User: Which sequence fits this backbone?
């Protein structure tokens, strides 16, 4: 097991990463909470809820199971959970545990941040993507007008990441999470990027075992940025690499058609092309493209989407200021910057990218 500590201006918390940690949950969560409220989803519960509950045997434990998928990250589920907690007479000294992927983590975290003006919160991630979402303290739910529009910064008290849970993760979810791990390598250093590419060159090597070896490294990249900039005023935007076009594709296709990571994979290739156009540098775009392709990640904009609609959608990106497009760009792997890019250049590069 590896242990890391995240230290920000507002506090610090440990992250434990290792195999079979769920069965020892009791060893890492203090015993004096007045109640333990586990939020999980319908896919994760049958595999892992009994293990966590058995480990907390003897304590006052409740659970709530939401339907698996993004559609549970909404006001209705949020409200149902709060009602259930209040009906169970949980008080301010209780602890909410998120057992699942990013959906459960974001939803349960927002419940913990707001129920009774805030109760203790523990993340127990079970997806590869959640190496990203469980660290950094962003929690929230979706609004009918857009994703993640209601939320808070509410860091967990502890993150317990049992990597053996990745063994039951469907291949597609593994790929989606891997795109974020690849992003962490691209924004961090050529060394991380090359190691990851060598160890996991294609889909056949995208296994829980291989991926686990890089998890702490990926978490460290995110942790370092969060420590510098917890509230996303500066370098935290680098974590958004590939997300400007990625989010636009996700939104225009309709959520759920492609996974978040799949959209971000295409977005990262585009961000590299745009970086070349902006800075006149040469980046290993073709290598990354080939790598993603071998991993089964999409490297092209889906045929049904047009440049116009993506340009329009990218206008809503949260990095934009005064209606101007802003992108996270790279001078080289590990050397990032956030810049305003003229609309004409974005459009030209996008049109060429769509045709390529
Ligand atoms: N807070 C943040 O900083 C942050 C960062 C990135 C993404 N996110 C959010 O994370 C969410 C996506 O997270 P996700 O990709 O983990 O999705 P998810 O939580 O929906 O999990 C993906 C699917 O895998 C299933 N699953 C989870 N763990 C499993 C396991 N061990 N075995 C079998 N099945 C399992 C789930 O039931 C679900 O069907 C989005 O809502 C996104 O907005 C948040
Ligand atoms: Zn992302």
Assistant:
């Amino acid at each position: 097991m590896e242990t890391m500590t995240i230290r920000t201006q507002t506090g610090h918390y440990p992250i434990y990463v290792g195999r079979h940690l769920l069965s020892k949950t009791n060893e890492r969560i203090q015993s004096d909470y007045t109640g333990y409220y586990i939020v999980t989803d319908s896919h994760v519960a049958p595999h892992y809820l009994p293990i966590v509950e058995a480990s907390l045997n003897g304590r006052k434990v409740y659970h709530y199971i939401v339907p698996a998928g993004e559609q549970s990250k909404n006001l209705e589920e949020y409200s149902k959970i709060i009602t259930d907690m209040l009906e169970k007479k949980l008080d301010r000294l209780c602890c909410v545990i998120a057992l699942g992927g990013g959906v459960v983590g974001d939803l349960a975290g927002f419940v913990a941040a707001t129920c009774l003006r805030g109760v203790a919160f523990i993340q127990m991630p079970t997806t590869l993507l959640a190496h990203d979402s469980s660290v950094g303290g962003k929690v929230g739910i979706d609004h009918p007008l857009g994703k993640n529009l209601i939320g808070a910064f509410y860091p967990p008290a502890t993150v317990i990441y049992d990597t053996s849970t990745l063994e039951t993760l469907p291949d597609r979810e593994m790929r989606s999470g891997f795109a974020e791990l690849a992003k962490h390598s691209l924004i961090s250093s050529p060394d991380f990027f090359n190691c990851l590419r060598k160890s996991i060159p294609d889909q056949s090597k995208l296994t829980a075992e291989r991926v686990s070896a890089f998890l702490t490294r990926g978490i460290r990249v995110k942790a370092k940025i969060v420590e510098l900039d917890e509230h996303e005023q500066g370098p935290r935007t680098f974590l958004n690499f590939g997300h400007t076009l990625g989010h636009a594709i996700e939104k225009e296709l309709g959520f759920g058609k492609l996974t978040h990571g799949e959209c971000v994979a295409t977005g990262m290739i585009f961000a590299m092309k745009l970086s070349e156009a902006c800075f006149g540098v040469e980046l290993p775009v073709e290598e990354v493209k080939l790598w993603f392709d071998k991993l089964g990640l999409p490297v092209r904009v889906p045929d049904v989407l047009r440049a116009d609609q993506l340009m329009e959608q990218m206008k809503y990106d949260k990095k934009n200021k005064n209606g101007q497009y802003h992108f996270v760009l790279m001078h080289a792997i590990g050397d990032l910057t956030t810049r305003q890019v003229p609309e004409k250049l974005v459009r030209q590069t996008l049109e060429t990218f769509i045709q390529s």
Notes: The first helix runs from residue 25 to 28.
